[in-house]
Amino acid sequence: xxxxxxxxxxxxxxxANAQELFVMTEPxxxxxxxxxxxRIGQSLMKEQFDSVYNYHMMPEVTWGINKxxxxxxxxxxxxxxxxxxxxxxxxxxxxxxxADDLHSHFRMAAFGRYSINNxxxxxxxxxxxxxxxxxxxxxxxxxxxxxxxxxxxxxxEKAFDNKPDYAFPKGQASTGINYTLSLGRLMFPKTYTxxxxxxxxxxxxxxxQTLAENGRSYLDVVPxxxxxxxxxxxxxLAYKQELYSSMLRSAPNGVYLKLEYTYFNLTN
Amino acid sequence: MKTLIYQxxxxxxxxxxxxxxxxQIQKAEIVATGLTCSMCSNAINKQLKSLEGVxxxxxxxxxxxxxxILKPDHAITPATLKNSVEKAGFFVGSMVITVSLxxxxxxxxxTVQAQGATLVFVDSKEKPLQGETKLKIQDKGYVTQKEYKxxxxxxxxxxxxxxxxxxxxxxxxx
Lengths: 268, 174
Hints:
The complex is a heterodimer. Chain A is mainly beta.
């Protein structure tokens, strides 16, 4: 525990000055009310037992309903070489606490997701964003101090049958607890001169899951680099690496490229 | 008897300020809180620009200050501006409005009508105000949460201060 604390402190020190538009996780803040953002998430993951790479594509549309609520619809593509729709999901987030000061804030939010997926279930990891039909619900806390952002979340995830063809495997744990820790730092610019300036953020995120029925777990680390162009578009580059795992996972390691564009005040 | 005099005084105090005058809000300087990224700032910038009655918005990205220049005869109140910032997902840390005034003495509780808003003077020097005057709004939601806690104590003498009223703005001359 002491080692972990020291590690966290070191990272917090090193990554002090961060932003909270994380690549893998959601902060407690949300998109502006009336804005719509379109995102295309792409990933190339290496299969554990073959030297094969899986390509996934995940288009998303996010809408800020008002100052506290946002919703998101996601489509999931097939993991095989032909791009086919594998499923989709709906996500909602509600910000219930904001304690803001001049250059800092502490915020908390609750979120829920429901996803459907028709792919075969080939791993123990539960992932409603890409592998399982299921539900996820949790809370997020985000602290921003000057240019430093630290965010953490805990959620409950439950997998069901991947209808119509794939029942959830008997004897496999269908309930998981997820936990994340994200740290980020604004690298550039040191001083702002205009909205046209490209912002560069460096982030590191830890993603973990423990299965409720058998206690198996994993922990991944995801370093990422983010470019914010024209204060309106995002380019995220990330690499996910498994740190440890006691469960069967098909393709935990790989790279992500996410592109996002925000249309401000579309529905005001 | 004591209560009667007190009540009469109170009644007098509430009638008197109505005469203080009229003004027009020309400009508002807003410092937004809880953000440090240019994309967040842009969200506020676009929200403010989309308001009817806003002529232009100038921003200082390093201090998160938005200077909102208003058109003549606009119908914007400080509450409209605050709601815009909150819609973008952030909060107002400070709002200073520039109001044109004509021989107004900013006595405690004296009021000025500015479009749909009632400005109530607090904590100001009783020196007649003429022309463009900068007024800092001291109400909840217009100062940081920490500042509001302090003001709540020091402004306990103003009976209307802690009453939440969207169209009443307690202002201090700066």
